[in-house]
Amino acid sequence: MSISKMTAKKILIESGAKRVSDDAAVELADTLNKIAYAISSKAVKLSAHAKRTTIKKSDIDLAK
Description:
The chain is mainly alpha-helical. It is 70% helix and 0% strand. The longest helix has 28 residues, at 22-49.
């Protein structure tokens, strides 16, 4: 699962953009996916270090 181009476009529009090019939406989606993957990977490591299999909100908070 990843953030789609349409979701990125909606985020930009909700942030105040009147128009959004496809290239901008694709770039934002790609960037958000990379950030989400990096945070997720750190959160998984944190939960494993705590000997848990469940990712908790605190893992995400620490991973940011």
